[in-house]
């Protein structure tokens, strides 16, 4: 019996291990939206909701005591040992914790709330981060993180070890730990929270559906490497509104498998702008479809709106993407499609296998720091289809700007500065 049992566990182990390595990701599809038509701006306790304070589990808010075990015990109480509505409270103070999991599903009625009033500080020794990321949230259906507090990744000393995994040509690159990592979850709200100085990304969302990221302030120095604000992959229905992001890399980056993303009222800069890609990096990439970016400002960023794909690699696709009502101030590359990523100029490689279709730029105005304001360089093998550029007014200081179109014939319309490349 004991042997049969351990054999079964062994088989299960190999099944899981094989699945992790080989099976293609099943793309998540958004189900019912738990928070639709709810007033999320208000944070009221649910009737009978209990509060579990990390201090009651031994946490000390002095910025020095290692509160990891106290946080884990308090989380266990909230999520796995309660039955009625319960929330985790991190009160005012500075609480030092290393890497930890906030795993679901929880035994309480959904959603589970984490209310952060104080500051949660990351330990600084990178060897504490064998889990890959700092605070890891997975397998939730209904999770709220609120409260006005801060997650401080204390990343400064780790930045010198940071590798740029986006421009690395293969998969062998080790990212620095992201501060908040969400996976395999649905109905997630993160609202009115700050993150500062992450070691890697501020927020990483993967394999999630129905996620709302609202009123966040994500801050890191312009010189901090690879500190993307929000990085998303393999997720359906993510609403990103009213955020301020000033960081050292992309404000928002989206790669394979993202669908139905809505970004509005973003204030981005400094940083590298809003990026889709790089695409075509991995075999069997899932498509990107349905991204709407509206009513945003970008200030002092290297890029504004960028779509990038690798030449001579794997197939991929991105379609139904729109950028509108965008104000730029001193942006280097305001509108850029680059299908020769890490190869331009004089790229001698075979063209990109990524198909770009139905991409619309409308009502984009402001100033640039380079003359070439609209730069659309598509794949010779798969010229971009259905690109429109409408009502764009971008000036290089007071000087006019130019546009370039390679392997695409966009539709230009409305008032145009730069003038049409055609
Ligand atoms: C965003 O919308 C508001 C309200 O309609 C407007 O006042 C503001 O100028 C818009 N911002 C941008 C960047 O278009």
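^ structure tokens above, recovered residues below v
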């Amino acid at each position: 019996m004991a042997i049969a049992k351990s054999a079964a566990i062994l088989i299960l182990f190999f099944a899981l291990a094989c699945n992790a390595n080989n099976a293609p990701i099943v793309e998540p599809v958004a189900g019912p939206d738990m928070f639709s038509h709810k007033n999320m701006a208000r944070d009221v306790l649910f009737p009978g909701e209990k509060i579990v304070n990390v201090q009651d589990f031994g946490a000390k808010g002095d910025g020095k005591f290692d509160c990891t075990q106290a946080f884990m015990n308090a989380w266990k109480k909230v999520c796995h040992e309660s039955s009625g509505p319960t929330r985790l409270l991190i009160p005012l103070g500075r609480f030092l914790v290393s890497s930890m999991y906030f795993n679901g599903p929880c035994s309480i009625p959904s959603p589970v709330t984490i209310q952060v009033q104080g500051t949660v500080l990351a330990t600084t020794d990178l060897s504490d981060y064998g889990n890959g990321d700092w605070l890891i949230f997975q397998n939730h259906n209904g999770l709220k993180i609120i409260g006005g507090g801060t997650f401080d990744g204390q990343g400064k000393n780790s930045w010198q070890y940071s590798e740029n995994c986006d421009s690395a040509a293969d998969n062998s690159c080790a990212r620095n730990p992201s501060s908040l990592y969400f996976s395999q979850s649905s109905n997630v709200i993160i609202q009115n929270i700050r993150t500062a100085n992450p070691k890697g990304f501020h927020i990483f969302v993967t394999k999630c559906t129905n996620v709302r990221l609202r009123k966040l302030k994500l801050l890191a120095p312009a010189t901090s490497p690879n500190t993307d604000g929000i990085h998303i992959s393999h997720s359906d229905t993510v609403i990103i509104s009213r955020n301020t992001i000033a960081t050292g890399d992309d404000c928002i980056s989206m790669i394979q498998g993202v669908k139905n993303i809505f970004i509005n009222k973003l204030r981005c800069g400094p940083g590298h702008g809003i990026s889709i890609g790089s695409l075509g990096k991995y075999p069997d990439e899932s498509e990107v479809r349905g991204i709407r970016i509206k009513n945003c400002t970008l200030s002092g960023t290297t890029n504004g709106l960028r779509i990038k794909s690798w030449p001579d690699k794997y197939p991929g696709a991105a379609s139904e993407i729109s950028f509108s009502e965008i104000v730029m101030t001193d942006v280097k590359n305001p509108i850029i499609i680059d299908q020769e990523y890490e190869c331009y100029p004089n790229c001698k490689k075979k063209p990109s296998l990524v198909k770009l279709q139905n991409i619309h730029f409308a009502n984009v105005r402001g100033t640039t720091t380079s003359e070439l304001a609209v730069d659309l360089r598509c794949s010779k093998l798969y010229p971009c289809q259905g690109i429109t550029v409408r009502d764009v007014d971008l000036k290089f200081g007071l000087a006019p700007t130019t546009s370039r179109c390679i392997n695409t014939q966009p539709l230009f319309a409305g008032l145009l500065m730069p003038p049409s490349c055609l």
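The radius of gyration is 22 Å.
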